[in-house]
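User: Fold both of these, please.

Assistant: Here is the first one.
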Amino acid sequence: MENKKTEQLRNFTVNNEEKHGLTTNQGVKMAEDEFSLKAGQRGPTLMEDFHFREKMTHFDHERIPERIVHARGVGAHGYFQLYESLEDYTKADFLTDPSKVTPVFVRFSTVQGSRGSNDTVRDVRGFATKFYTDEGNYDLVGNNMPVFFVQDAIKFPDFVHAVKPEPHNEIPQGASAHDTFWDFIGQNPESAHMVMWVMSDRAIPRSLRMMEGFGVHTFRLVNAAGRSHFVKFHWKPVLGVHSLVWDEAQKIAGKNPDFHREDLYDAIERGQFPEWELGLQLIPEEDEHKFDFDILDPTKLWPEEEIPVKLVGKMTLNRNVSNFFAETEQAAFHPGHVVPGIDFSNDPLLQGRLFSYTDTQLSRLGGPNFHQIPINRPVCPFHNNQRDGMHQMTIHQGQTSYHRNGLNAGLPAPVPVEQGGYEHYQEKIDGRKIRGRSDSFLDFYSQAKLFYNSLAPYEQEHVKKAFSFELGKCKSELVKANAVALLNHIDRSLAQAVADPIGAPLPAENLEVKSDKKSPALSMADTVRKPDTKSIAIVRIGDPDLERLADWTMAFNEHRLNYTIVGEKLHDLPNPLKVTATFDTADPALFDGVLLISSEPSIPTPALEFIEMTFKHYKPLALALLDNRVLKKARVKTDEAGVYDLSASTIQAFINGIAQGRFWERKL
């Protein structure tokens, strides 16, 4: 969806696909670009070669410092539109006018790894959204998990130092399965809730398009009358919340380290635009202290059963970036970029981020004018008395650059609140200056227990295995013992299940939180399940009935399913039935289900391995064979859930299985 504001964002481009002559950055046309200027054919290069100097200097400075965290990311453009006015809660223009279409730019990322790390590592995912509103840019900078590891921003550098590759050997990359991370967790029990999320399937999403987003912190919405509500922001994916299994995530890391990037890019290019609904949890100012947790604690969530999520609008991503560096890499997000009607709370982690993010951009993007980079520019006019600085790209006119002034009639002048000027919420503060933690932040384990209680049995089993894997990679007995001791406060059976395989002692005393309270919204078991935009591998052996196969592919297209035909070798058949991938280039971990169709009396080993892995990963499997006895050498049980014999089942049954996703009841 294009509008004037979206067009404005696209005006800062240079199209090198159009016919242009080669020039220097100063616009000088160049007749030669392959050879430097020399004194004679075999003589020394001359320093007067301005074209060589400019080209090499630019090359030497092409890389900017990567983000310390969230270094590996991918971005896309889109738009947001409101369902109905929220004027009872906020005066923010883009949240009160349902007719407005607000351009957005979203950057997804992993946290721990460098720019060159893998997409499918076990990690938190960043979910940062820049709204280009008529009142200025608003950045909603969050994660795919609603809580965080620490409560106070002063501990954030310590957490990052602990989770990053260990400084003595720069190992491991893109992983938390090492001693310093788990040492930090054992020494900081406030991390108990967040580490449960990270060891759950939420840390290995199937797709960025199938991932929730959370603002993490408590913010405020303030309406035109000055009334305040505390708010938590949610992004709910229209496709539902889905994950990989751990073995699958590891295989994908080797087969396609750009799996999530490619999935997002390809979906947008196909016109299968990802969508999320924006949800708000709202608490009136006067109800701040009515809950059994502190609503300002960033290690706590607001259970949706107690504070429902109100769905207020939809975001659609419909355009890929034109240049990764210029847009995705230079995008500067900051939770302090707010507009009138949105304000902050006293969440101590949020308060620290309000400093840190600007400080980071100054280092990464070369100075205080990073807001003038096209991807960061607001679409509304901006005027102030800030001048000069590195990378100043605006030619300011006028004699004065200060406030107040008389020479320019006091301009630019502050805007009254009644005319849209920003005013912070006037909260009454009364207290002593102190370094410390509020007593209301001291419950570290109740919500960790709530999260674990809320998971389906198969999800709980995955959590146990994740802890066992991560702690099993640790070398320090102290670190492992402390981590198990932490789990002993959450769930005794979980602590026992982890302690056994890693050889750590189980504490003698059971300190588990005694609670059977659940929040069903925390489990992915009941999420939205659609076949839309999922991917199928059609494994084709021999010369099967192509008419039948064509009918099936038509059914896949009708359900917006993507398919790839895999065979032993590439060969040319009329589209869409030609083999486009081989067993060397494709892998079952890259697909949501597999259809094996064969006209042969035997199945080659690579094809058997293909369906065995699909079965092992609990994914749907369809079979169209001369005789199912050809599978006698395969470790596939054809009578298990999610296995469809297409001589007896319809293709629709298989499509329904793709929508279902996984068949956890399957006996492997």
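And the second sequence with its predicted structure:
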Amino acid sequence: MSSNSDLYATRRWMYERIDPTTNKVSNTYCQGLETFLNFAKSQPLFLEKQKLFCPCIKCENDPKLQEERIVSTHLYNKGFMLNYWVWTSHGEDYNMLNNDSEEDVFRTESHTEPVDPYVTMVSDAFGNTETEFDQMLEEEPNAEAKKFFDMLDAAKQPIYDGCKEGLSKLSLTARLMSLKTDYNLSQKCMDSIAQMMQEYLPEGNHSPKSYYEIKKLMRSLGLPYQKIDVCQDNCMIFWRDAEKEEKCLFCKKDRFHPTQKIGQKKIAYRQMFYLPIADRLKRLYQSLNTAKEMRWHAEHLANDGEMCHPSDGEAWKHFHKVHPDFASEPRNVYLGLCTDGFNPFGMSGHNYSLWPVILTPYNLPPALCMKQEFMFLTILVPGPNHPKRSLDIFLQPLIEELKDLWVHGVEAYDISTKQNFLLKAVLMWTISDFPAYGMLSGWTTHGRLACPYCLDQTGAFWLKNGKKTSWFDCHRCFLPIDHSYRRNKTNFKKGKAVDDSPPEILTGEELYNEGKTKDNIKSRLDLQEHCNRKDLHLTADGKAPIPIFRLQPEAKAVFLRWLQKDVKFSDGYSSSLSNCVDLAGAKLT
């Protein structure tokens, strides 16, 4: 038995925190957590400092030491960081795994080789264990298997003769790449680090010689991505049939910056990134950690009338009735898509809008569905400008791949059942706010036809001064037919009573849409024309009256201090409101 198998069996509880039958933290996880803490507290670090590193999925053994109760709380609420099978930050090393002991749960039953987490990473990435590959050696390895062998050799190859167990070329490369990402190091800096290590390590070492070599080795591990040139005005992407075009087919603007020399590499004005989804879905079945979980949606049993997962809902069941062939294979993937814009520069003042498009597989249990590692970035729409109605231009590669996954599927290997199968996928839902909903669906969410349910059955009207559509007094039709507000001709539109019933297609609760204030001089002029509420009209000197809902400076200061000091949320439920309060400027951002 390999040490990998023993370690997985002994510590599988680390990644089975939630009991699927109760949807609560399992007893096995609680017992294992207690075992981990007892082991960590017996090591010299805790005996000296009385504190521990926290290996939760958020802290990831951050250099800051924590008290035992904090570490325990984090691990109970969040779970362990990925691939922390060997507790190296808590006093355990690979040599401990070689010692025989029937009493120590941290050691294997026989003399085995140390577990290299980077070998495990490669095994998970390419979907087979060493035992399975030993059996496959009787045949000529296919391209994917050969790629795995190459990476496995790189993972096992010591950096130099006589180095510590587990220090391989791949592990060093992975750590160097992580340093570059964490500290935003330049390529020249990485080249200098690589050259320095070549000089200081023993002669004949296998450390990477440059950043190029680091990227080359890591790229062979990872998943492909595509850079696609984009028109300067978002008219089109230079993809497929238009891949060789040098000018936009619509606005005729140049695709590339002017070059200074003949033969110089052409640089596009704009580019988008596309990360194909099929390979990442196949990886979910190539990893022992996730292959079985991807069938959870079909294998779990929910109590009648309870909904613990989208698969228990009416939409999922209706889809199965309409497409029984797709439903007959429980390994087919059900996807949700979400997108929204954000400013990557935060409060630095830069006006920049970046739009990621993310897919999530809903086959997984509730505890895993929303974890970061299962939220797959597929498209990164470049800034700095808002894509507006051009989002569908950027979605073209994803739509084509989703159509292919629905119609044809891809060959995949399920390591949990050791079977090849045809993997198909369906996009079940899109999740977005109302403006992004309009961008995804193509339905306008502005103007008189903004409501996708009411369509043209609205009472919206045009404001001559404000030059915009107003939805004021469009909601009295939803009141009970005998409600007094329906006959009120003073506090709503002038001289208007409402007898209409609500649109038949619109059912459910009213939606409350928050937005930026439109309370300005123009809106007050329009209000005066349509409403008889003199307390809200402009004053004699042409100024707007102070609204009754506006806080006075003293009250605003009390409110902001309350937000900064007294409002608390549990970890993971909200960002820190205290960081959003500017007491000096009396602002909430």
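The first strand starts at residue 18 and ends at 19.
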